């Protein structure tokens, strides 16, 4: 049998095709025939699919149900309902619900409403999809609204978007704009003090690497909890000043605190995993994890002792990776909505050209700076900015460091805003980007103390 022969048979003698749909045939023949049927004629007799709905092989049952669904015939409704309840495969049950919903007939409403109480969230979601066709039916709306209290977060999200979302999904002229007084600005001050006076929804993208927990001379905290609390406070403010549906990329890695003596063990803190629950709680939606891979020579060797004695339990791999955790400010709007806020010219000029990173591991060499001990590589900043912002967006780094991110932003025709508490690093930023080649005459780089910045905010209220 070929696909062409199957097409000829399905449009001609249905009985002849039935020979190939006999349950006693081998699995390969059944699967090929069912899979290649395609669109079925209006007068097609689906009786040959019925016995296959009880076939011992899941993929045969699945395709049989799928082909019944193509017929959109109410005479199969009882059969499909039974399958949606009794089949031991989630995929087959879900396909049965999909086939029922495809009929778009009010007679399917009671069946789909029953399945809203199914213990399998995938079945419930498929039933919801079928019922949304009848969104003007009061009974349907009442039953669906009850699911706002469903324990499954995906189901709740769907219902909230359909019935409880008050946001405007139309064009928002302010989405692409940001305050002029924040463009190409560096503030020398405590990040929390600065953020508290920045207006809501001012920035389009944040990319940052927070100070390591007690691993550098510029970040000393009395406890790990205090450190996490500080980051939580900062990123909560970042969430507030980020525009709807825009991105926050956090670069972190587990950190090792060296042992006090040979009688004590070192301590390793899983920073990216400990901060993640806080970010979700405050309204960030997790999107992706990107692993930044460094060359082996760039990391401290942790295997020297183990290579000698080879004793189990003492193995410690050399850490050559850091995480870029990608979050989006939670919204019911799709990413397409964010893109549609920009004019055609901006979208075209912002397209990512050339080779792209197709997998979530980025091999980038680290960078060393004469002043800062943990500097962003320029290449890392360029990739993040290109992938997660548009031309003329305002991008933010709450821990400015040596200013690499700001310099990268200007090279890609974005505006930057950054803060840095250290006077030494503030001066390094001036040196690094003060005379850059991407000078914007309308928005020259500006360097403020907190007091100066505070006055500017007051004037622009």
CATH class label of the largest domain:
Alpha Beta
How many independent structural domains? 2
Count of separate DSSP helical elements: 20
Q: Which parts are unreliable, with pLDDT below 50 for 5 consecutive residues or more?
A: none
Strands of the widest sheet, in order across it, are 8-6-7-3-2-9-10-1-11
The CATH superfamily of the largest domain appears as: Vaccinia Virus protein VP39
CATH topology of the largest domain: Rossmann fold
Question: Could you characterize the architecture of this molecule?
Answer:
The chain starts with a helix and ends with a helix. It has 461 residues and is an alpha/beta fold. The protein contains 20 helices and eleven strands. The radius of gyration is 29 Å and the shape is elongated. It has helices at 3-10, 14-18, 27-35, 58-71, 77-86, 90-101, 109-114, 121-131, 138-145, 153-164, 191-195, 224-241, 271-282, 304-309, 335-340, 344-349, 378-388, 404-411, 423-433, 450-459, and strands at 185-188, 203-208, 242-252, 255-257, 267-269, 284-293, 321-329, 361-363, 394-397, 415-420, 446-449. It has a nine-stranded mixed beta sheet. The chain has a two-stranded antiparallel ribbon with strand order 4-5. It folds into two domains: 3-164, Alpha Horseshoe (Leucine-rich Repeat Variant); 180-289 and 323-459, Rossmann fold (3-Layer(aba) Sandwich). Helix 4 (58-71) runs parallel beside helix 6 (90-101).
């Amino acid at each position: 049998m070929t696909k062409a022969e199957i097409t000829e048979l399905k449009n001609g003698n249905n009985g002849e095709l039935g020979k190939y749909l006999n349950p006693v045939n081998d699995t390969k023949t059944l699967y090929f025939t069912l899979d290649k049927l395609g669109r079925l004629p209006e007068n097609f007799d689906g009786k040959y699919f019925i016995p296959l709905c009880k076939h011992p092989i899941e993929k045969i049952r699945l395709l049989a149900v799928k082909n019944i669904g193509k017929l959109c015939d109410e005479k199969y409704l009882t059969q499909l309902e039974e399958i949606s309840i009794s089949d031991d495969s989630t995929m087959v049950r879900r396909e049965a619900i999909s086939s029922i919903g495809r009929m778009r007939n009010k007679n399917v409403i009671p069946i789909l409403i029953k399945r809203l109480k199914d213990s399998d969230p995938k079945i419930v979601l498929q039933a919801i999809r079928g019922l949304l066709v009848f969104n003007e039916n009061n009974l349907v709306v009442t039953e669906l609204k009850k699911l706002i209290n469903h324990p499954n977060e995906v189901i709740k999200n769907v219902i909230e978007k359909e019935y409880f979302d008050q946001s405007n999904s139309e064009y928002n002229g302010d989405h692409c704009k940001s305050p002029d007084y924040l463009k190409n600005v560096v503030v020398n001050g405590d990040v929390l003090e600065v953020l508290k006076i920045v207006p809501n929804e001012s920035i389009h993208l944040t990319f940052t690497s927070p100070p390591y927990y007690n691993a550098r001379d510029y970040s000393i905290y009395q406890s790990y909890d205090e450190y996490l609390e500080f980051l939580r406070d900062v990123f909560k403010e970042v969430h507030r000043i980020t525009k709807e549906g825009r991105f926050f990329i956090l670069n972190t890695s587990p950190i090792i605190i060296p042992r006090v003596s040979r009688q004590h063990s070192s301590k390793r803190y899983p920073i990216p995993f400990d901060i993640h629950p806080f970010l979700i709680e405050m309204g960030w939606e997790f999107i992706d994890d990107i692993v930044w891979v460094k060359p082996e020579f760039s990391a401290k060797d942790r295997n020297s002792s183990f290579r000698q004695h080879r004793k189990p339990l003492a193995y410690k791999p050399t850490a050559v990776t850091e995480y870029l955790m990608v979050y989006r400010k939670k919204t019911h709007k799709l990413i397409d909505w964010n893109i549609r806020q920009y004019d055609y010219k901006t979208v075209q000029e912002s397209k990512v050209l050339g080779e792209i990173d197709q997998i979530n591991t980025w091999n980038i060499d680290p960078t060393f700076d004469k002043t800062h001990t943990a500097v962003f590589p320029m290449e890392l900043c360029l990739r993040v900015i290109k992938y997660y912002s548009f031309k003329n967006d305002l991008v933010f780094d709450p821990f400015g460091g040596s200013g690499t991110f700001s310099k990268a932003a200007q090279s890609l025709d974005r505006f930057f805003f950054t803060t840095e508490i250290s006077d030494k690093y503030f001066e390094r930023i001036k040196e690094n980007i003060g005379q850059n080649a991407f000078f914007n005459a309308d928005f020259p780089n500006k360097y403020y103390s907190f007091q100066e910045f505070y006055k500017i905010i007051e004037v622009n209220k």
